[in-house]
Inverse folding.
């Protein structure tokens, strides 16, 4: 127990000091870390749907988009609305939740692969609407996206300004980091509690054997819908934070490839295991960034020109992560104990 | 020109292509009860390979029809090989794993295929050369082009051929038996692995032809084209009743027509200035701009999805299909 407490204190200190160290390397890395934390949010949300309940959602980024656009429209000069943080973030979660329920209701009573393809289509539809809802009434501002979105402001604390405290500079991204870390802590606790709750066990039961789950009295449709809506609302929260931190959003940020990336994080880390998913999300957030900084100079040095764009390499990496994980280690790098047995087919 | 007839002709053309692609989905689904997620990418690669061959032969002073046929003939084996690889890498090793596993692998494969295509053919859309002389004929006030006629005829010849293959050959019997029950088919001496692999390969071959059709019809090929096309063809397969060959054909054509009519009429229908109450409320803007179109033809891709959702809500088994089990 003592060692565990010590470990926790060490990890906490490291997490608190991290942005200050990263600032020394470059503020860009603080931003990258912030985005990585957002992806941990998203991966944890998708984990509820894919990992715990076993429902393949291929359009998860659509809910992220709903949250982001909710924030952008309610807190920017676009409609000249500037609602506070406490109002918009829950609203974004609510809208995403409603979208999830509306999409899930007709499809969840069918086989899993229908859900996969319907969510795939839904992601595309949301993108089409974001791109085209600029005429005749300008709602989303089309492909140009929404700019000058309000930053976070909680009480007197402005997250865009730089504060001086204890002789240190706390820039905007550093403060965003602390807020995200705090939110992340909340999300992790919620997820861990969910995993061990009655609902969490019902999800796992449905994933493992739906007929048996039904037989023991689980209302499978409602429980699946709950997983879907809850996952969606996590996406909505992440989207709101994304809009606030970036200050600019456009349909470009919410494409299929992002959904695939989040799925790859969940699958690689270990479906159903909160810690595994976090590790997977961090790994797949940072490795492409490292690639971005290493592949280009390396290729120029070796071949004198760019052969493979780091962006393409990133997507190839995600594709490989999906295929290789399922083939070699189907329960992920850090599997949940029960899931490992299930995926290896030992339960059959 | 008659808009209705024109849209019907256009719908029949795209619908025939959808039907060909939908057959790939429905055959695989019939045999292993899984969606072949990467099928759209196979179609895209078919278009790309044909494009490369056609461009290479363009300067050789050969008859245009021969060049196009060479393109198709080159695309088919490449796609068949990819279809086979897909089955071997993504589906066969995971046949006894939970359903989620092969779906995820297939998604991974489709992303890999898409980005390999990006590496080979680049990020920009490729313009298919217009080598077949595209004359238009008038038919009762609407125009139909040579390319459209060829696409529709070829699609129906292929569908006829496939139907003959499935219902009249020994291998077709094996395929239908496997679709009925893999284990019992195996007990009857059918090599189920071979049948399943062959189903993927045949679907991919059809996909290759469909890819060339799309390239020739729209005059363009792009590494992302497989995604939307696959989604639409899948919707068509569900509309007709997934697992059912005739259903895929019917669903494809119906979806093509729904999409063409929808795209043709939606801007008229959703023009707010034509609506009695709202039109008056917006009379100022209406008189200034003439039209206030809520949904223009840029919403074309939404129709297939709407059809898919409506079918899943009201008749999940599709028009000709059997009941879909609720078991996930």
């Amino acid at each position: 127990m003592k060692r565990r407490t010590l470990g926790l204190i060490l990890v906490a200190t490291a997490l608190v000091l991290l942005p200050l160290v990263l600032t020394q390397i470059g503020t860009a890395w603080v931003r990258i870390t912030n985005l990585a934390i957002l992806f941990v949010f998203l991966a944890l949300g998708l984990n509820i749907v894919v990992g715990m309940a076993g429902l393949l959602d291929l359009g998860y980024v659509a809910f992220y988009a709903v949250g982001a656009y909710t924030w952008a429209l309610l807190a920017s000069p676009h409609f000249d609305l500037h609602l506070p943080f406490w109002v918009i973030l829950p609203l974004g979660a609510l809208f995403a939740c409603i979208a999830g329920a509306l999409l899930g209701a007709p499809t969840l009573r069918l086989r899993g692969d229908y859900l996969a393809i319907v969510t795939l289509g839904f992601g595309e539809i949301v993108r089409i609407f974001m791109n085209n809802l600029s005429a005749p009434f300008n709602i989303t501002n089309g492909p140009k996206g929404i700019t000058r979105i309000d930053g976070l402001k909680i009480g007197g604390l402005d997250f865009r300004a730089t504060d001086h405290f204890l002789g240190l500079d706390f820039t905007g991204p550093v403060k965003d980091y602390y807020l995200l870390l705090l939110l992340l802590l909340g999300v992790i606790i919620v997820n861990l509690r969910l995993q061990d709750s009655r609902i969490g066990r019902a999800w796992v039961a449905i994933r493992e054997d739906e007929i048996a789950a039904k037989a023991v009295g689980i209302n499978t449709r409602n429980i699946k819908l709950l997983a879907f809506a809850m996952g969606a609302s996590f996406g909505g929260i992440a989207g709101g934070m994304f809009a606030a931190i970036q200050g600019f959003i456009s349909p470009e940020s919410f494409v299929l490839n992002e959904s695939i990336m989040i799925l790859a994080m969940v699958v690689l880390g270990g479906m159903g295991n909160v810690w595994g998913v976090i590790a997977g999300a961090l790994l797949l957030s940072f490795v492409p960034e490292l690639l971005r900084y290493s592949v280009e100079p390396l290729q120029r040095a070796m071949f004198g020109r760019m052969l493979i764009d780091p962006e393409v390499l990133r997507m190839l990496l995600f594709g490989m992560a999906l295929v290789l994980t399922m083939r070699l280690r189907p329960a992920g790098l850090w599997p949940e104990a029960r899931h490992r047995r299930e995926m290896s087919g030992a339960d059959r | 020109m008659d808009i209705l007839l024109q849209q019907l002709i256009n719908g029949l053309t795209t619908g025939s292509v959808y039907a060909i692609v939908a057959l790939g989905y429905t055959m695989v689904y019939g045999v292993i009860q899984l969606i072949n997620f990467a099928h759209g990418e196979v179609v895209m690669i078919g278009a790309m390979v044909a494009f490369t061959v056609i461009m290479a032969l363009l300067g050789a002073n050969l008859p245009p029809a021969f060049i196009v046929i060479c393109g198709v003939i080159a695309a088919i084996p490449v796609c068949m090989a990819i279809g086979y690889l897909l089955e071997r890498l993504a589906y066969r090793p995971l046949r006894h794993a939970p359903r989620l596993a092969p779906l995820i692998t297939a998604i991974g494969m489709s992303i890999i295929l898409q980005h390999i295509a990006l590496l080979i053919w680049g990020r920009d859309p490729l313009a298919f050369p217009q080598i077949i002389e595209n004359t238009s004929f008038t038919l009762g006030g609407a125009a139909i082009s040579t390319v459209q006629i060829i696409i529709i005829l070829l699609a129906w010849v292929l569908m006829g051929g496939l139907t003959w293959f499935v219902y009249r050959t020994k291998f077709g019997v094996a395929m239908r038996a496997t679709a009925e029950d893999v284990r019992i088919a195996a007990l009857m001496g059918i090599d189920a692995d071979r049948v399943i692999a062959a189903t993927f390969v045949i679907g991919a071959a059809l996909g290759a032809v469909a890819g060339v059709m799309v390239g020739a019809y729209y005059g363009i090929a792009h590494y992302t084209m497989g995604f939307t096309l696959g989604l639409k063809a899948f919707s068509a397969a569900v509309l007709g009743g997934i697992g059912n060959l005739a259903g895929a054909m019917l669903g494809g054509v119906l979806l093509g027509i729904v999409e063409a009519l929808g795209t043709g009429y939606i801007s008229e229908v959703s023009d707010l200035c034509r609506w009695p109450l709202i039109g008056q409320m917006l009379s100022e803007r209406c008189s200034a701009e003439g039209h206030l179109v809520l949904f223009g033809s840029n919403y074309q891709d939404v129709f297939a999805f709407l059809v898919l959702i409506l079918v899943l809500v009201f008749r999940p088994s599709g028009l000709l299909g059997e009941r879909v089990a609720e078991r996930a």
Q: What stands out?
A: The mean pLDDT of chain A is 85. The longest strand of chain A covers residues 163-165. The radius of gyration of chain A is 21 Å.
